[in-house]
Amino acid sequence: MLDPGIETNLPPIPAKRYFTIGEVSELCGVKPHVLRYWEQEFEQLKPVKRRGNRRYYQRHDVLMIRQIRSLLYEQGFTIGGARQRLEGENAQNDVSRSGQIIKQVRTELEEVLHILRR
Question: For the chain, which domains are there?
Answer without folding.
Answer: 6-93 (1.10.1660.10)
